[in-house]
Design a protein that fits this description.
This protein is about 35% helix and about 30% strand. The chain is of the alpha+beta class. The strands form 5 sheets. Strands 2-17-21-20-19-18 form a 6-stranded antiparallel beta sheet, with no helix packed on it. The chain has a 6-stranded antiparallel β-barrel with strand order 3-12-15-14-13-16.
Length: about 450
């Protein structure tokens, strides 16, 4: 009975759809039109975006450089020429080994400041030390022999020679008496002819011995010959020269800094072979240079000046030096060297500008710009203000000179300019360019407002 009651209750909860109106619950016709129209618009925009991505041209890849502005109150005096180059050390030294040996110790690293005479590298020196000791022994031997010749015979030696000569004289005198007695006995027929001959020969031998000892005594008093002493002196000089060479070879195993400066490059490691003859470019081969150093307080800017601009410069002309790394800093410079010959291939003349007071900001091989100043006593007008752009940035459009700069939204913007002067590093132009990035390399058909991509930068 209870189950039947529950079934009736559930049946009463069902919705009766038999009396529903066909139009009840559906949106009006106008609403369905708006919904379908909206869906169509969204689909169309999506398809349009996909089509644009597929068929729109890719952004043009370009190369840029920042235009350098000139003129105004910040420049000192009139600028007659602006040129770009590189900072170089006035004297860069590659320190080589005078002898061939294995590296025992390296005492410097790249960037270390060293003083003149400071030890940089030591080589193994056992063989060189032994050669020097041997040469010293030869010198001492030659000295002793020369001293012996120069001193001559000792008094005791001369006294002995004198005694030997007197002994020979006494023997000769005794043998003379014997000879005279034998001669008388022979005349009397007492002795034979042989006895007389023996006595005569002995006396003559005594005479020769006495003369020989007398000469030896004289020579011991005179001393050695001058030629023999000269030969001994020559042998001593030869030995001393060999010893000096051996000493220099030994000292060369300690490589010292020739000047005060900064280590630019360390080229050897402990255990490598350093040589003074045949350096090798192969890895692990003999190294001819151990370090490279330079005095960074003696820096210059090396410039290649176009032959058309060379006439604007003269020896000792002053200029202002700037570097790309520190564009807000300036250094004074003066022309220190003008090459006596031109470069035929580049059509340039090399000029070196001495930086008068370099500091720790400057490094060799940095990009640098030199603005050469007119003489203060010259009535020449100041150089017009403008911007220096590379030659590759200048284009011809409809008979006008234009450049393309990069806008903030990544597009190429065409600017009309007027060329004021030709420079070694491009052109000085007058136009709305105030240090913007100027396009130097781009497709020939680049258009104003075209999207671009700077080469080397991620999109």
């Amino acid at each position: 009975m209870a189950l039947d009651t529950k079934h009736e209750d559930l049946q009463s909860l069902r919705i009766d759809r038999s009396h529903r109106n066909d139009s009840e619950g559906e949106p009006p016709t106008w609403a369905r039109r708006y919904i379908l129209g909206g869906i169509a618009v969204v689909v169309f925009l999506g398809l349009a975006a996909i089509g644009y991505r597929l068929f729109a041209p890719a952004p043009a890849e370009v190369e840029v450089v920042r235009a350098a502005t000139e003129g105004g109150s910040n420049d000192v005096g009139g600028i007659v020429l602006s040129a770009g180059g590189y900072i170089v050390a006035h004297h860069k030294i590659s320190v080589n080994s005078k002898v061939t040996g294995r590296v025992k110790w390296v005492g410097v690293e790249k960037g270390d400041k060293v003083k003149e005479g400071q030890v940089l590298v030591r080589l193994e020196d056992d063989e060189f030390r032994a050669q020097y000791l041997q040469a010293q022994g030869t010198v001492e031997n030659a000295k002793a022999y020369l001293q012996e010749l120069q001193n001559g015979s000792r008094p005791e030696e001369m006294q002995q020679a004198q005694h030997n000569m007197e002994e020979a004289r006494a023997t000769a005198a005794n043998d003379k008496i014997t000879l005279d007695r034998t001669r008388e006995l022979y005349a009397q027929g007492v002795v034979s002819k042989q006895a007389l001959d023996d006595a005569t020969a002995k006396y003559e031998a005594d005479q020769h011995r006495m003369n020989s000892l007398q000469q030896s005594l004289a020579l011991s008093k005179i001393g050695p010959r001058a030629e023999e002493i000269a030969r001994a002196k020559g042998a001593l000089m030869q030995a001393e020269g060999a010893a000096a060479f051996a000493k220099s070879q030994l000292e060369a195993t300690t490589i010292r800094a020739p000047v005060t400066g900064t280590i630019l490059e360390r080229r050897v490691e402990k255990g490598e072979l350093a040589t003074s003859q045949f350096a090798s470019t192969a890895e692990g081969g003999p190294q001819g240079s151990v370090v490279a150093l330079a005095d960074l307080n003696d820096l210059q800017v090396e410039l290649d000046i176009a032959q058309g601009d060379f006439s604007r410069l003269k020896p000792h002309q002053r200029g202002i030096v700037t570097v790309d790394a520190f564009s807000d800093l300036k250094w004074e410079g003066v022309i220190a060297e003008m090459s006596p010959e031109a470069n035929r291939q580049k059509a340039t003349v090399q000029v070196k500008v001495q930086i008068e007071k370099p500091d720790e900001h400057l490094r060799p091989d940095m990009n640098a710009t030199v603005k050469f100043l007119a003489d203060e006593n010259k009535s020449a007008s100041k150089e017009p203000a403008g911007a220096v752009v590379p030659s590759s940035a200048l284009r011809d459009r409809d008979g006008k000179k234009v450049v393309f700069i990069v806008s903030s939204d990544g597009k190429a913007v065409m600017k009309t300019v007027r060329v004021l002067q030709q420079r070694s590093n491009g052109y000085l132009v007058d136009g709305p360019i105030n240090g913007e990035n100027v396009i130097t390399s781009a497709p020939e058909n680049l258009k104003d407002g075209q999207s671009i991509k700077i080469k080397g930068q991620s999109s």
